[in-house]
Design a protein that fits this description.
Number of helices: 14
Radius of gyration: 25 Å
Distance between the termini: 50 Å
Number of domains: 3
Strand order of the largest sheet: 5-6-1-7-8
CATH topology of the largest domain: Alpha-Beta Plaits
CATH superfamily of the largest domain: Reverse transcriptase/Diguanylate cyclase domain
Number of strands: 13
CATH class of the largest domain: Alpha Beta
Helix content: 40-55%
Largest sheet: 5 strands, mixed
Shape: globular
Bound molecules: magnesium ion
Order of helices and strands: HEHEEHHEHEEHEHEHHHHEHEEHEEH
Structural class: alpha+beta
């Protein structure tokens, strides 16, 4: 339905978040690289005496092998298994391929681990369900690996949807289906409900999310305190407004200069830091990014190198703020070497999209006013 109609307007109010989870990722990559492993129980993890299972293929899971299980136990359960040590660099390469596929569908991709990502499809065109189907087909087609996809109104539900779709499926949870979907699930499936919380709930007869939804909020408050009680109340209703925070592939940018001769004059060095900060800030604003941390690199005349980093109070692309932080790093954190500087560099880290500037930067004058 075209935008601008009454229904289109309602659809824009509804957020649509997609969660992609690669199936048995490490084991699947090992199979991709060695097709003789296809159809066999593949177990990837630490092979030493105290190793644990990172990933088990579905064939291995049929024997009871699970992630985080001691490897010795996995070997007993599945003696015919193929046991492999993880190759993290290779998995990282494949993970980047997956992210590249996702990036073609949306700019709002947040990788949450090597084999999982959230994608915000709220403003997607074509509609989110069609895009979800396209992504569900494109990832296996372009990487040779199976993935599970969940689509729902927020991150909490999208992740539960992809779990329900495993392995290899696509599950959409429409707003009117949320209660029916959540009710039969065990409370442990909710974020923030670990074994201890689950035990305390179970002691009070609360085992499913449906049970949890029926608990009066004042009881949740009494049992778990205000913060956790409120979170449990919201999550039991499938409520979650946490944003998808996209991270660019290039999470940092930097600039450095090697001087023709070593420099001892502090004023020249300060000018140089300011100049680099201004150049980097311009690059940020050109690309619509904000930095969350500033890094200073100093190489002394004797080639010793120091690197110091500071987190910014708020993400920024302001050249004078960045310059101030670089200068204060220099003044507070860089040892006086009693020698000249051969190389000076400024870097910006933790880059995020400027559209995700925290709300505090948007508050009105009086809300922001210092006391
Ligand atoms: Mg996975």
């Amino acid at each position: 339905m075209p935008r601008g109609t009454a229904r289109g307007y309602d659809l824009r109010m509804q957020r649509w978040i997609l969660h992609v989870d690669m199936d048995a990722f490490f084991a699947a990559v090992e199979r991709l690289d060695d097709p003789s492993l296809v159809g066999r129980p593949v177990i990837v993890g630490g092979l030493g005496p105290r190793g644990v299972v990172s990933t088990a293929s579905y064939e291995a899971r049929a024997f009871g092998v699970r992630s985080a299980q001691p490897m010795a136990q996995a070997r007993r359960l599945c003696p015919q298994g193929v046991f492999l040590a993880p190759r993290h660099e290779r998995y990282e390469v494949v993970s980047r391929q997956v992210r590249a596929v996702l990036a073609r569908f949306s700019q709002l991709v947040e990788p949450v681990s090597v084999d999982e990502a959230f994608v915000d499809l709220t403003d997607a065109d074509p509609p989110p369900e069609r895009l979800a189907m396209a992504i569900h087909k494109a990832v296996p087609r372009e990487t040779g690996l199976s993935c599970s996809v969940g689509l729902a109104g927020n991150r909490l539900l999208a992740k539960l949807a992809s779990e329900a779709a495993k392995p290899g499926g696509l599950r959409v949870i429409h707003p009117e289906e949320v209660g029916g979907f959540l009710d039969p699930l065990a409370v442990e499936r909710l974020w923030g409900v670990g074994p201890k919380t689950a035990q305390r709930l179970s002691d009070r007869g609360v085992r499913t999310i449906g049970d949890l939804r029926a608990v009066d909020p004042s009881l949740l408050h009494a049992w778990f305190g205000a913060a956790q009680g409120a979170t449990l109340w919201r999550h039991a209703r499938g409520l979650d407004d946490s944003p998808v925070v996209p991270v660019r592939e290039a999470k940092s940018i930097s600039q450095e200069a090697t001087f023709p001769e070593d420099i001892e004059d502090r004023a020249i060095l300060a000018d140089e830091l300011r100049r680099m900060a201004t150049g980097l800030a311009r690059r940020l604003s050109e690309e619509g990014l904000l930095a969350r941390a500033v890094r200073l690199k100093v190489r002394w005349a004797d080639f010793a190198t120091q690197t110091r980093q500071v987190k910014l109070p708020e993400p920024t692309d302001d050249p004078s703020l960045i310059g101030d932080e670089a200068l204060s790093l220099w003044e507070r954190r860089v040892a006086e070497g009693g020698q000249g500087v051969r190389l000076l560099g400024v870097g910006l880290d933790g880059l995020i999209e400027a559209s995700f500037r925290p709300l505090s930067l948007f508050c009105s004058e009086d809300e922001c006013a210092a006391p």
